[in-house]
Structures are given as structure tokens and as C-alpha cells.
UniProtKB/TrEMBL annotation, chain A:
UniProt keywords, alphabetically: Cell cycle, Cell division, Cell membrane, Membrane, Transmembrane, Transmembrane helix
Superkingdom per UniProt: Bacteria
Transmembrane segments: 21-46, 174-201, 222-246, 272-296
GO cellular component: plasma membrane
Free-text function comment from the UniProt entry: Part of the ABC transporter FtsEX involved in asymmetric cellular division facilitating the initiation of sporulation.
GO biological process, one term: cell division
Boundaries of every ABC3 transporter permease C-terminal domain copy: 178-300
Family indicated by similarity: Belongs to the ABC-4 integral membrane protein family. FtsX subfamily.
Major place of residence: membrane
Record's bilayer topology term: Multi-pass membrane protein
Protein name: Cell division protein FtsX
Pfam family, one: FtsX_ECD
From TrEMBL, chain B:
Domain ABC transporter: 2-228
Species this chain originates from: Lacrimispora celerecrescens
Known role: Part of the ABC transporter FtsEX involved in cellular division.
Lineage: Bacteria, Bacillati, Bacillota, Clostridia, Lachnospirales
Localization terms from the record: Cell membrane
Gene Ontology molecular-function annotations: ATP binding; ATP hydrolysis activity; transmembrane transporter activity
Keyword Membrane annotated: yes
Any one GO CC term of the record: plasma membrane
Record's keyword annotation contains Nucleotide-binding: yes
Name of the protein in question: Cell division ATP-binding protein FtsE
An annotated GO BP: cell division
Family annotation (PROSITE patterns): ABC_TRANSPORTER_1, ABC_TRANSPORTER_2
InterPro entries: AAA+_ATPase, ABC_transporter-like_ATP-bd, ABC_transporter-like_CS, ABC_transpr_LolD-like, Cell_div_FtsE, P-loop_NTPase
């Protein structure tokens, strides 16, 4: 295609939008809303996942042993655990360590009070392994496996933290899919209508173009351009607003809830924005292109 | 060359617009098609443009059989034809220059070719000074000149005009006809459908008379023999 033809189609596409500015704006607004929500959920989900990843290294599984299990047996179990692929790290806490830790925790400065127990370690059977997994998703499986090992008395693990987060992510995901789906349908409907109105407006012109010998491709081009512009603008507006919103939101949370900053870490906007922008632009332009293409094809057949 | 072989057209409604029409028009001819309203004149032109398909028969234009033409080739074929209508069919939101340039733009012509040929064409139809005017600022005759310029800008081999003077007064009609005659002298085949007895009688060209879908007379240097 010639550059001049490209500019001509671009100009006609812009003309289409200007002529029917209200419909076009409504279409842009719905595409924007759609992509805004997409970006918002994208940011939340990806950050929750990031937090989970971080927690995974702090939440472990603790394994206790049968009364009086001898040290060799315990060592053997430890080796077995270490041999697994999904296990990242295993640390051993002896009964003495456990007692020392407990003393510190319960009696604090008044270590004297604990002296009475010294003879007979109340936590004699509290030797344990603490296991950290590569991926918390495997936790249930590993726990079941641990319970099946001979000599293992008890397996302590935290279902709540990881699974809570995971299911939160799932709920957010499903909810956002639903809302985005509805908005997407509205956006498609509105773009399709906008293109139809433009096509009706240009009916006469399209007829003349046909008789002059313009290709179908040439006749459709302005409408597809119109759709792409709607999609592009509809993607850029939310991207720009999300960029600044995200930055200030992270800044706000970090300064206002500095206690949390040890617990939660946000991904910097620079880390997620390129992916978000690429997805949003593809989404916007894709919707604009396909909807306008199929709408105009339907109209010009007759 | 345009050839029709036993061409018939029955519209969906059951209207028989053409019945077994056969004829030949040579390159460079000037032909009037006249006949009562509803006799099938416009249908004939639409078939040549491949806007309407014949129900039966064969149409061959410049050795191309229209019914066997692949869809993708139709735009290219239409560029060999120019079409002028009774109601001008100009784009109201564009000025004279743009209306003519439009025909070049939509077939993907280069800006350079547009800048060269549009002013020349406007000069030929006598509208050089009004190139910035919009259609509603022009008289009917002037609008039809713009339409003719648009039809000719892509250098068609055949010019089809369906009642080009139907909305014009006598003087303007003769001016348009003079223009079409000049175009014809430059080598373009011209086919004009008209109801104007004065025009047909004055021009002394080939006249094909149609009635109820058939050709009832075809004379070289004919006159307006048909009685309304
Ligand atoms: N799209 C159509 N659908 C059904 N019938 C049609 C259609 N177009 C034309 N006809 C019918 O075909 C016949 C010929 O029509 P056509 O337009 O070719 O006549 P014409 O000779 O051009 O008439 P006029 O001088 O009034 O323009 C008429 O009876 C008309 O009613
Ligand atoms: Mg007619």
C-alpha cells in the first residue's frame, strides 16, 4: 500500500470518529473501563502472587518424631526429606535447641524460673525438622508423604497463610474475569454499533467507491482504522492512569503502613508495566480490529 | 468491444427486465440507448458494470466474459469503466477537487499522479476556477461536469451515462453532450441512456431503442424514432 493511501485511510477513519463523536467516545470509554479493570486486577493478582512467593520462604512444615526415636533414624529421615526435589531447605532443631528457644520465649529474663525443669527436659521429644518448599502448591502432597514415614509422630504446617492467599487470588481472578467479560461484551457491542453508524453514514460513498473500482479492502480500511483508533485510545487512557495510580498507591501504602513493609513487598511499577502495557495494547487494538473488521464485512456484503 | 449474447434478466420479484438481448458495440463508438420507462436501459448498464448479474446469456467486454470473472478481479475491471448518473452522486462533504481526486485515491493512485491529473481533468470539463467549491454551491450542469471528470479521471475505456442530462435544462444538456462527444473523440466508447429527443436528433449517432426488455431498433446515425 502506498503511503498516501495509508494517510487517506487514516484520515477517513479519524473523520468517521469525529462525525460520530458521541458513539466513539462511549466506545472508547467502555474499552477503557475494560482495560482499566484488567490492569487493576493484573496488578493485584501479580502482587499477591509476589507476596505468596515471599511468604513461602518463611512458612515451613515442621516434623516431629515418635517418642525415643534414636538419632540415627532421625538423621535417616532427614536425608530422605532432603532428597526430594520440591524441598528447598531443611533445618534440624534438637530437643535442647527447642528447650532453649522455649525458655527464651516463656520465661524471658527470668531464666531462673526455668531451672526447675533443667533436669528433665520437658521438650525431650521436641526434636524436629523444619522444611521449606520450593513451591507452596506442593505442600499438601509433601505433608501426606511425611505422615506416611515411619517414626514421624506429627506434622505441623500452616494451611491458612498460603492457601488463604491462593484462594484470595483465585477469587480476585474469577471476579475480574466476570466483570471484564461483561465489559468486553458491552465494548464489542458499542464498537460494532459505532462502526455500523459510520457505515450507514458512508453508504453512498461506499457505493460510489465500489463502482469506481475500489477494492473491498480499500472500502473497509477507514472503518477498521476507526476501530483500531478506538481500541488504541481505549488502552492508552487506562495504562497512563494505572501507571501513576500504581506508583502513588505503592508509595502511600509503604509510608502509611511501614509496619507492613516487612510483610508485604510490592513489585515496583517498572517491573510489571511493560507486560501490562503490551497485554493491554494488544487487547485494545485486537478488540478494535476484529470487531470493526467483522462488522464492516457484514455491512458491505449487501 | 462490448458483446451481449441472448442476455435475459428476471429480477427476484419476477420482473422481466431484459429478454434475449443481443448486440455489439465497437471500441470508440458513441451509442444512445432510448426507450420507454421500465424498458430495461438502466438494467443493461448495471450489467455492464457487473452490479447486476444476468439470469441467462453471456456478456463479453474487451474479450472478458463477465459471468466467469473472479470476484477479486471485479474492482480492476470496473476501473476500465466510467459511470455517470442522473443524480450526479457527488460527495457532499468534499469540494470539487476532492470529489475528482477521490476516484484516484480509492484505487490507490500516487499523490503525484493525483496532483497532475486532477487539475488537467478539471480544466477539460471547464471547472478549473471552481475547484474549491462544494457540490451545493454549483449548478446542476456544473455538478454533472464534476461527475464526468470523476468518471474520466482513471482513463476508462468505456463511459456509461444513465440519463446524464435528466436533471438539466436544454442549454446545460447540450453542453454536457458536447463534453461527452469530445471524450468520445479522444477514443473512449460512450454509451448514453437518455429520454431527450432533442439531444438524440441533434447528435446523429447510433441509436438503440428498447421496449419491454428487447431491442426493437438499432440504427447508425439514427433519430429519436420512438413514440412515447
Ligand atoms: N432491483 C430491482 N428489483 C426488481 N425489479 C427491478 C429492479 N430494478 C429494476 N427492476 C424492474 O426492471 C424493469 C426495468 O428497469 P430499468 O430500471 O432497467 O428501466 P429503465 O429503462 O432504466 O427505466 P427508466 O427510463 O425509468 O429509468 C422495470 O420493470 C423495473 O421495475
Ligand atoms: Mg433507468
Amino acid at each position: 500500500m502506498r503511503i498516501s493511501t495509508f494517510w487517506y485511510c487514516l484520515k477517513q477513519g479519524v473523520n468517521n470518529i469525529c462525525r460520530n463523536i458521541l458513539f466513539s467516545l462511549a466506545s472508547i470509554a467502555t474499552v477503557s473501563a475494560c482495560i482499566f479493570l484488567f490492569c487493576l486486577f493484573f496488578s493485584i493478582v501479580i502482587n499477591v502472587q509476589y507476596v505468596i512467593k515471599n511468604t513461602e520462604s518463611t512458612v515451613g512444615i515442621t516434623v516431629f518424631f515418635d517418642d525415643g526415636l534414636d538419632a540415627n533414624k532421625i538423621k535417616e529421615i532427614g536425608n530422605k526429606i532432603k532428597a526430594r526435589d520440591d524441598v528447598k531447605e531443611v533445618t534440624f532443631t534438637s530437643a535442647e535447641d527447642a528447650w532453649a528457644e522455649a525458655k527464651q520465649e516463656y520465661f524471658g529474663d527470668m531464666q531462673d524460673l526455668a531451672e526447675g525443669f533443667e533436669e528433665d527436659n520437658p521438650l525431650a521429644n521436641s526434636a524436629s525438622y523444619t522444611i521449606f518448599l520450593n513451591d507452596l502448591v506442593d505442600q499438601d502432597q509433601v505433608v501426606d508423604w511425611l505422615k506416611g514415614i515411619e517414626g514421624v509422630r506429627k506434622v505441623n504446617y500452616s494451611k491458612t497463610a498460603a492457601e488463604g492467599m491462593n484462594s484470595l487470588n483465585k477469587v480476585i481472578g474469577v471476579l475480574s474475569m466476570l466483570i471484564i467479560g461483561v465489559l468486553l461484551a458491552v465494548a464489542i457491542f458499542l464498537i460494532s454499533n459505532t462502526i455500523s453508524v459510520a457505515a450507514a453514514f458512508r453508504k453512498n460513498e461506499n457505493q460510489i467507491m465500489k463502482l469506481i473500482g475500489a477494492t473491498n479492502y480499500m472500502i473497509r480500511a477507514p472503518f477498521v482504522v476507526e476501530g483500531i483508533i478506538i481500541g488504541l485510545v481505549g488502552a492508552c487512557i487506562p495504562l497512563i492512569s494505572i501507571y501513576f495510580l500504581y506508583r502513588s498507591a505503592v508509595g502511600y501504602v509503604v509510608t502509611k503502613f511501614s509496619i507492613l513493609s516487612g510483610l508485604f513487598q510490592f513489585l515496583p511499577v517498572e517491573a510489571i508495566f511493560p507486560y501490562m502495557a503490551a497485554t493491554a495494547l494488544t487487547l485494545g487494538v485486537g478488540i478494535g480490529f476484529f470487531v470493526s473488521f467483522f462488522t464492516i464485512r457484514k455491512h458491505l456484503k449487501v | 468491444m462490448i458483446e451481449l449474447w441472448n442476455v435475459s434478466k428476471t429480477y427476484e420479484a419476477g420482473n422481466k427486465a431484459l429478454r434475449n438481448v443481443s448486440m455489439t458495440i465497437e471500441d470508440g463508438e458513441f451509442v444512445f440507448i432510448i426507450g420507454r420507462s421500465g424498458s430495461g436501459k438502466s438494467t443493461l448498464l448495471k450489467m455492464l458494470l457487473k452490479e447486476v448479474e444476468p439470469t441467462s446469456g453471456k456478456i463479453v467486454v474487451n474479450d472478458m466474459n463477465l459471468s466467469k470473472m473472479p470476484r477479486g478481479f471485479i474492482p480492476k475491471y470496473r476501473r476500465k469503466l466510467g459511470m455517470v448518473f442522473q443524480d450526479f452522486r457527488l460527495l457532499k462533504d468534499r469540494n470539487v477537487y476532492e470529489n475528482v481526486a477521490f476516484a484516484q485515491r480509492v484505487i490507490g493512485a500516487s499523490t503525484r499522479s493525483i496532483r497532475e491529473s486532477v487539475p488537467a481533468m478539471l480544466k477539460m470539463v471547464g471547472l478549473s476556477s471552481k475547484y474549491k467549491f462544494f457540490p451545493q454551491q454549483l449548478s446542476g450542469g456544473e455538478q454533472q461536469r464534476v461527475a464526468i471528470a470523476r468518471a474520466l479521471i482513471n482513463r476508462p475505456e468505456i463511459l456509461l451515462a444513465d440519463e446524464p442530462t435528466g436533471n438539466l435544462d436544454g442549454h446545460n444538456s447540450m453542453e454536457i453532450m458536447k463534453l461527452l462527444n469530445e471524450v468520445n473523440k479522444l477514443g473512449t466508447t460512450v454509451i448514453v441512456v437518455t429520454h431527450s429527443q432533442e439531444i438524440v436528433d441533434r447528435m446523429k449517432k447510433r441509436v438503440i431503442v428498447m421496449d419491454r426488455g428487447t431491442i426493437i431498433s438499432d440504427e447508425k446515425k439514427g433519430g429519436y424514432t420512438y413514440e412515447n
